[in-house]
Amino acid sequence: MNPRIRAVIETLIFIFIYVLLGNARSVQENPFIPGANIAVNMIVPVLAGILFGKYPGLAVGLFGTLLNALSAAGTKFEYLAIIPHAIMGYTAGSLKGKAATPFVASTILIGHALNLLVFTFSGLIHTDTFFKIGFWKGIVYESIVGIIIIVILTSVYHLVRTSPKPLEQKDPKPLTTNSKVWKILFVICLILVFCAALLFYFRTLFLSFVIGITLVIMTQKLQSDFQSRVTRVSAWKRQLYGYVYVLFGIFVVGLLISNTVEELSFSIDTLRAGNQSISQSYLDIVEPLVPPRVSTWIEGEGILSTVETWIVSFFTSLFTQLSSLILTSLLIIPLMFYLYFKKGNLIKKRLFKLVPKKFSRSFQQAFDDIRSELNDFLTAKIVQSIIIAVICCFGFYVIGLKAWLFLGLLAGFLNIIPYIGPVLGAVLPVLVALIDGPTIALYAISIIIIAQLVDNFYLQPFLISSKVRIEPIISVVLILSGAQLFGALGMIFAIPIYLVCKIILREVYTELVMIYKEKGPANKKV
Description:
Helix content is 79%, strand content 0%. The chain is built from 20 helices and no strands.
């Protein structure tokens, strides 16, 4: 596609997103300023400037705010914010590539400052407001939320746009017919199967280890991106900036989590109004929607009561397992971070010294391949889950779904589980949406379907396939086999375990062929 046409299309999409956020059914309230809402759409011009440049950022800020002012949600504030938001998007685009993403994202402060200036001179904000501590807390809170969202979305965009590594094209070599090679390979294969089964037996420890590896990879990527964008800043300043953003992130996440818990509690209290059970409350909502003929065949109260019992039992068991997992992770993950970032090179050198010199090449090759394959797989799955979570969070926010952040993140997390994950991720949003009415529930289902269409028609064939080099039929067989043997956990880890075993067996086979090298025409296809 022509670059100019593509730039115009991208700018129009961002303008549409800006207006859509401005007309959201429910807007997140600012916890520090009574009656004020967080202007989430302010992140859109900054994001457009960071991703596409100063002129797209200017256009999104200018035309997005103008169209939003002309829409049903338009107010005097929106008309006065047109120029400030245009300047904000242009400034972010001007700083693109000249500073780290978090600092460029901080240009949202320019938008807030210009807004306050214009609103004050126009009389929409009284000067007494500036002497209230809660007002400034609200501005800081809103700015931090915007910066963190911009940083996350920018990181996801760069991960998705990263070009895949070209596949190595090698001519296949004939397999050996030496029986000793295959006997040893068979024994090693059995050992690997036993090790895999042992990992699933100690599943809590295994999951903690996997979570630790995932967090290490994410931290390393964010650190590399941060370091590459602040090369002109001294080392101590880089560390200081990193710690400040991490602490701000923890603070905002804590506030969002507390707000989500309050919204879920409010929804549950709404259901229990009138001293009814939750199943009976849902029955009162759903029963008018069911045709009379169907309702005579189905015992709605019994089904809902069974579903309620199953959900309570499932989440009780889940929280029990999560408590054990969290405790184990708190002991293991900090140690993994310390060993990787402080002692990683030393441990690697000592590990290689234990390997005999004649096997050092194969060991190094296997080590590098395993690290590369697992890194690609985990990166692809993380990006896939984040994109699904972003789509769901954005959609749930627009339709006004309670606890939109938690439900969107849950949908993205459960999407890791092949086949059944999307279904599990849809259950809770639909149940929460039914509290507000069947129309909201229908909207929630539509958003989940859109997210799955993006996943199946874009992420799976392009993003995942480009990073995880495995045949589709093998992938399906592995996932189904893992589900049959170890349930949902087997479905998640079937492919990474296969990749590790494949690399080990391949390198062992190469070394065995070298050791039992045959003379003459003994090597032939089998």
